[in-house]
Amino acid sequence: MDPPAAKRSRGYPAGPEEGDAGAGAVRGRGRPEALLDLSAKRVAESWAFEQVEERFSRVPEPVQKRIVFWSFPRSEREICMYSSLGYQSPEGEHDARVPFTRGLHLLQSGAVDRVLQVGFHLSGNIREPGGPGEPERLYHVSISFDRCKITSVSCGCDNRDLFYCAHVVALSLYRIRHARQVELRLPISETLSQMNRDQLQKFVQYLISAHHTEVLPTAQRLADEILLLGSEINLVHGAPDPTAGAGIEDANCWHLDEEQIQEQVKQLLSNGGYYGASQQLRSMFCKVREMLRMRDSNGARMLILMTEQFLQDPRLALWQQQGAGMTDKCRQLWDELGALWVCVVLSPHCKPEERASWLQLLGKWDKLDVCPLEEGNYSFDRPSLQPTMALSPGPEEEEEMVAAGSRHTVFGRALQAGSLHWSDTHLQRILASDCYGPSLTGHVGSDKPTFDPQGRPLWLGEPFPTACARVDTLRAHGYPRQALRLAGAIVNTLRLQRRHQLESYKQQKKELLQKGSTCITNTEGWVGHPLDPIGCLCRALLEACRLEEETLALYPDSGPEKRKVAYQHVPVPGSPGESYLALALEVTLLGLGQQRALPEGLYAQDKVVRNEEQLLTLLEEVELDERLVQVLRKQAGLLLEGGPFSGFGEVLFRESVPMHTCARYLFTALLPHDPDLAYRLALRAMRLPVLETALPAGEPHPNPLDSVLSNRFPRWFILGHLETRQCELASSMLTAAKGDPKWLHAVLASIQQNIHSPSLLFKLAQDACKTATPASAPPDTTLLGIALELGLQVMRMTLSTMTWRRREMVRWLVSCATEIGPQALMNIMQNWYSLFTPVEAATIVAVTGTTHATLLRLQLDTPRREELWACARTLALQCAMKDPQNCALPALTLCEKNHAAFEAAYQIVLDAAAGGLGHAHLFTVARYMEHRGLPLRAYKLATLALAQLSIAFNQDSHPAVNDVLWACSLSHSLGRHELSAIVPLIIRSIHCAPMLSDILRRWTLSAPGLGPLGARRAAKPLGTDRAPLCQLLDAAVAAYINTSHSRLTHISPRHYGDFIEFLGKARETFLLAPDGHLQFAQFLENLKQTYKGKKKLMLLVRERFG
Question: Which residues is 137 bridged to in the sheet?
C-alpha cells in the first residue's frame, strides 16, 4: 500500500527544506536542485554506506561527501518524537520539562558550538547555564546516524530516560537547521588512507600524547597484538571505523534505549494505584501509535518491551492467587495493550516474517497463566456482516455459541488478526479509490454483494468489530484516506443491513407486539466491545472533518484548558449531499441505539457505560447545524421504528442495555428543533425492563430502598448507575416540560411506571419543586402538583420499610403541599393513614402544617385557618388512638386550644392506660397535665402509672425513681385524702427500702395540702404513728429487714462496709416509730443469732451499734 503524502504538523520548527539555513538551502530560490544532491538523497535514505562501497569500486570524494551530508535526519518531527511524550502545542506553549522544548531553547540561545561531522558521526559541545550561584555546565554530545536515522547517542549529562536528552536535541536541531555551517569530513578511515607511513606514525603519536591517560593502555595492547604475527587482529582484513556508517546487515532503526523503557514501565506499574502512573503509561501507548503512524519499526519494538514488563507485574500472580480482579485502571491499560497489538499485527505493510515473529510472541504470552483474560462474554467467531439479518438466533444456536467459548486472553484478538490479510481484490479497490463503483469493475469473484442499490461499495464477509479494527489499523499506520474509504463502505453496509432489518420487523411486528417480549438480536453489543468498533468509525470520520489539525498535549492533564474542536462538513465522494460529519453522527447513534444484552462481569459492564460516555463526549463536541439536525431527526425516527433491533423499539429484551444516557443527549439536541420527537424518544427510553419483569407474580416486593438490588440481580453490577442515569433523563424532561401540562403529565406517568427507587423518586420530586418555584417568577402549579405526586408515591413506597431519610421526606412533603395551598395540605392530613406512620403524622405533619410560619405562608382568613386547625386536631386524635404510646402527648399539645378535642385526647390516654400504656408514658403525660395546671388529672394519671410499676428491693437507681418521688410530692400537695389514697399504691409497687424511707421523710416535713397546688386543709404535719403514714413506716421497716436478709445471704467481705452504712440508714427509719429503738435492737439480735458464722461482720455490727 502506498504511503500517504508527507505533511508537516503545525507547531514544529521548520524542516530541512523549509528553513532558510537548513540543508535544503543549498539551492538558490527558484533554481532546481542539483542532480548530484537528488541522487545522494535517495542513496542516503536507503543504502548503507558499505553497500555503496561494495557496489562501486571507486566513489569520488564529492559524491561521498554529499551522501554523508544527506544521511543525517532531515525532519525535526522524528527528533521531537524521540524527545517528548507527544506533539508540541501549536500556540508555542511548550512544557519546560520536555527535552525537545529544552533543547530548542538551548539552540535558540546559542548554546551549541564546536560542531563537527566526521562521516556518520556528529559531535559538539552544549553550554548550559547553571542555576543561581552555579557555574555554566559544558556537555560533550556524540551522535551516530545512518540512512536518515539516529542510531546511537552519547551525552556527558548521563541522562537516563526514555527519550533523548535536551543536549542531544539541541545538537540534532543545529545540524538540521544549520547544516551548511557544520564542518564536514569524510569517515576517518578515508582520511587515514591518504596518509603515508610517517604521517600515520605522527598522527598516532600525537593522538596518544593528547589523551595518554585514557588511551595509552589500549594503544599498547593493540600495538602488541599487531606485532604478533599470528594474532587475531592480523587475520582480519582492514579495521573498524565508527565514523563509516552501518554495515549492510545492521538493523536500520532509530536509537531506542530498551533498558530504560523496561525500567520505566516496571516502575510505573509498581505505582499503578496512582493516577499519574496510568497517565504516563497511556502516553507511552500514544508514543507507540505515533511511531506506527511514522512507519517506525520501533513502534512494535517498544510495544514488545512494554508487554513483557506488563506480564512480569507481580500483582498478576497475586490477584490470581487471591481470586480477586485487577483494578479498573490496570484493566484499562491491558485493554489498550491488546488493542494496540491488533493494530500492529494487522499492519498493511509489514513483512511476513515480522508478522510471524509477533504472532509467535503473542502465542507464547497467550499461554501464560498470569495473562489476563478478556472481560465480558464477547464472541471470537461472530457471524460476518450480512446484508440481511434474522430477528434473533434460536435458543439452540445461542447455547452452541456459549458452549464454543473457551479461554480468551487480551491477546486473543491480536492472534485472530494474524489470519487476516489485505489481498482481497474488492477491499483493495475500496481502499484505492474514492470513486469505486459497479461501473468501474465487473464481478469481483465473490458470491457476496459488493455494492448497495445506489452503487456504493459494501464491505461484507467479516464481523463488524473486525472490519472496524481494519479502519483503526489504517489510521494507526498513517493511511487516513484509505481508513476513510473503508469506513464509508462499512457505513453503507450498516445502512443496507438496517433497511433489511426494518423490512423483516414489519413482517413480524404484529406477532411481536402481541407477545410483548422478544429475544435479543445482538447478544454482544458494539458499545463497550474490546475492539471499540463504533469509536473507531466515529473517530476516523470526525478526523476528516476537523477544520485544523489538532495536536496532542505533551502532558494532557497539566496543560491549559483544551480548546474546543471545530468541525466542518466534508463531502463524501460519490455520495452527493452527504458528509463525513453526518456519517459520524449517524454511525455513532446507530451503535448507541443498538438493542444489545448487557455483558457479563463488573468491568465489562462498567466499560459499556464508560464507552457510551466517551462516544457522547465526541458528539457533544460537534456543533449541530441544520444539516446535522436533519440527520438527528431521521436517526431518531429510525430508532423508534427499529423494533427488536433498536434499544428504542417498542419491544425490549428483558436484559437489554438501557438507553437513558443516549436518550438524554438526543432529547437535549432535538428539543429546540422537534419537541414532539424529542419527548417521544425520551419517554420510550425511560424503560428499565430488568426491573419491570424481575419479580414473579405474587412474590413480595423487596425493600424498595435497595436500588441496586444486588442480592436479586448479581449480574447487573451497574444497576445503581443505570437507575441514576434514568433519573437524570427524567429530570431533564421535567425541567424542559415546565409550562407544558401535556408533556408534564406524560413524563409523570412514565416516571411512576419506570422508576422503582424511592431515593431517586424523592430527588426528582425535589428537583421538580425547585424548578417550579423560581425566586423571581410565579410558581408553576402543574409542575408543583407533579412534585407533590412524586413525593406522595415515595411516602407510600417507604411506609412499611422505614429509612433514615423519612423525616426529611415528610418535612419536604409538607413544605411542598404548603407551596401548592391549604387544600393540598389538608388532603395529606386527611389521607395520612396511607402515607405516614402515626408518629410522623402527629409530630411532623400536624405540627409543621400549623406552625406560625406555615400559616403566614398560606395567608388564610379566619374560617380557613380554623378549618386547617380542625383537620390537624382530627389527625392528631386519630394518631393518638392508633399509637397512644408515642402520639398521646403530641395530640394533647396540639389540642390545647380546643376544649372538646383536648378532652377527647385525655380520654384516649385514660383508655390506653387500661389497655397497657406503660408507666413511663403515663408519668410523662401526668407531668404535662401538672404543667398545664390540671393537678387532679395529673394525680389520676400518676396513680394509673403507679399501678403498673414495680420496683424491687435492690433497684435503688430505677429509671422511674424521680417519677415516683414527683407523684408522691403531687399527692402530698393535694391533701390528706389524695395522700391516703396513694399510700397503698406506693406500698404495693415499691419494695426498695431507701425509696420508701425517702418518701416517708418527705411527707413528714410539712402538712399535706400546703404545697403550691393544694388548698390548706391541715395545720400540722402528719405523724408516723397514725394513718396513713404508719402503714408506710411499717412497709419501710419490713423492706429494710427483708433487704438485710437478702443482702446477707451472698455478701462478701468487701461489701461489709456498705452493709454497715445500710444498717445505719435502717436505724434512722426504725427510730421514726414510737418503739423504734426496741424494734431495731431486736432486729440486730436476730441478725447476730442468724449470721453468727460471719464473725467479722458481726464484730463490725457490735462495734457500730452495740
Answer: 128
Q: Is 883 a residue whose pLDDT tops 90?
A: yes
The set of cell numbers assigned to 223 is 600495538
Provide the CB-side half-sphere exposure for 70 (13 A, CA).
Answer: 23
H-run or E-run covering 128:
strand 121-128
d(CA 680, CA 309): 52
The pLDDT confidence band at residue 272, using thresholds 50, 70 and 90, is low
Q: What angle do CA 383, 389, 392 make, to 5 degrees?
A: 85
Residues 133 and 198: their CA atoms lie apart, in Å, by 50
Distance CA 621, CA 543 (A): 12
CB 184 within 8 A of CB 99: no
* CA neighbor of 725 nearest in space, from 601, 592, 623: 592
Contact between residue 345 and residue 418 where contact means Cβ atoms under 8 Å apart: yes
**Higher pLDDT residue, 277 or 719?**
719
The string of DSSP letters for 146-165 reads ETTEEEEEEETT---SSS--
Query: What's the CA gap between 667 and 686, in Å, rounded?
Result: 12
| Cα–Cα distance measured from residue 595 to residue 656, given in angstroms and rounded to the nearest whole number | 6
Instruction: State the DSSP code for 832.
Output: G
Residue 371 DSSP code: S
For range 570-579, the mean pLDDT? 88
Handedness of CA 202, 206, 209, 212 (dihedral sign): negative
| Contact residues for 358 (Cβ-Cβ < 8 A; gap 6+) | 300, 304, 341, 344, 345, 418
Residue 276 clears pLDDT 80, i.e. is over it: no
Closest CA to 1004 of 1021, 1020, 1019, 1025: 1021
Rounded distance, CA 733 to CA 744, Å? 8
Amino acid letter for position 858 = L
pLDDT number for residue 562: 52
Q: How many CA atoms lie within 13 A of 1065 on its CB side?
A: 19
d(CA 846, CA 122): 91
**Cβ partners under 8 Å of residue 525, min gap 6:** 594, 596, 597, 599, 608, 657
* Residues 693/699/701/702 CA torsion (nearest 10 deg): -100
With contact defined as beta carbons under 8 Å apart, do 997 and 1036 qualify? yes
| Contacts of residue 150, Cβ cutoff 8 Å, sequence gap at least 6 | 73, 78, 79, 82, 143, 144, 164, 172, 254, 255
Quick one: cell of 41? 538523497
| Averaged pLDDT, 1034-1044 | 89
Does the structure show a pLDDT above 50 at 452? yes
Question: In which residue are the cell numbers 426529611 written?
Answer: 808
Q: CA nearest 11: which of 74, 95, 70?
A: 95
Q: What are phi and psi of 176, to 5 degrees?
A: -75, -45
Q: What angle do CA 1025, 1028, 1029 make, to 5 degrees?
A: 50
Mean pLDDT of the chain: 83
Task: Please list, in sequence order, all residues whose beta carbon lies within 8 angstroms of the beta carbon of residue 1093, skipping any fewer than 6 positions away.
Answer: none
Calpha distance 791→789 (Å, rounded): 5
State how far the Cα of 248 lies from the Cα of 859, in Å rounded to an integer. Answer: 99
CB atoms within 10 A of CB 1064: 11
- Closest by alpha carbon to 427, among 468, 458, 394? 458
Measure Cα distances from 294 to 150, 161, 186, 291 in Å.
15, 22, 30, 5
Grid cell in block for residue 422: 489485505
Q: Which residue has the cell 453503507?
A: 492
Q: Which residues of 847-858 are buried (b: 16+ CB within 10 A; e: fewer)?
A: bbbbeeebbeeb
Q: Which three cell numbers stand for residue 128?
A: 548550559
pLDDT of residue 14: 38
Handedness of CA 265, 267, 272, 276 (dihedral sign): negative
H-assigned helices in 861-1019: 862-882, 884-894, 899-914, 919-931, 935-947, 961-974, 976-989, 993-1005
Please report, rounded to a whole number, the percentage of residues in the chain having pLDDT higher than 90. 39
